[in-house]
Structure formats: structure tokens, C-alpha cells
Request: fold
Amino acid sequence: MLFESFYSRLDSIEKRIKNCDDAEIRTWCKEKWFDYLSSVLNGHDFNIDWVNNARGGFYACYFDWVNCGNGENYKQIEISFEDGVTSEVKLCFKFASDNKEITLNSKSLIKDLQEAVVTKGYKAAYRLGRTTTYAYKKAIDIKDVQDFINNAS
Reply:
């Protein structure tokens, strides 16, 4: 009985993933995103975590960390869901430090990082904190996500 229940659960997940294969990313389920990101980021150091916030939260996939000044520069894909399907995919460039003071003292570095990606169609963001989003854009399709992972830096 336990084995049958386990098998049924795995089979259900696999079917949900396969149902998304030819679909727009706006209809992808969470399992499809985990499958896709694990595959495309194979060889990268990455984490996927749930971020709870006032708007309901999102899954964040962090990767491509680079030491930069007294902090780290990295990429983050934010995936929000509504009724079990993707409602928004946001592609973010981030700067993080051990404390807010380091970030405040890194304004010129963050501005330089921001200028480099704004020319590639990303919007500037200005909220400084221990973790700072300095540029972002919303993904329209899977090509946007692939380009972000492979090219934008």
C-alpha cells in the first residue's frame, strides 16, 4: 500500500511536468520549474528557496555568485504562483553583503553593475538593503529565462 501510494504520487508529479512541456511558462506548475531549473543549471552552484512576503511569496532560484567589492553579485529568478500555476517570472540582478552599511558604501559599484545590465533591457531598481535588487525584468517566455541564465551578466 505504501509503495503504491508513493508510486502514484511520483506518477502524478511526472504527468504534471510532462503536461507543461509544450506550454507557455505562465502555465507551468512548480514541479516543472524545479525540473527545468535543475536541468538547465546543471553544473552551476544554485539554490531554490521559498521567500515569504506580504504579496504571498515566491520561489527564488539563486545562482552565478561572484565576489564583488565587499559583497557578492548574483542572479535570481523569482517565480510566483497563483492557483498552482505560474503568475509571474522576474529575472533579477542582486548585490548582497553581510550588512547594510557595506551596501550603502558600495553605491558606486552597484551603479556600475546596474548600468551594465540596463543597456540590455533590464529596469533599474533602487531599493538598498543588505540584499539589493539593482536591475530586473519580467520574463515573457522561456527564451527570456534562457538568455538570462546563459548571457546576461
Summary: DSSP finds five helices and six strands in the chain. Helices lie at 2-19, 30-40, 100-104, 107-118, 142-150.
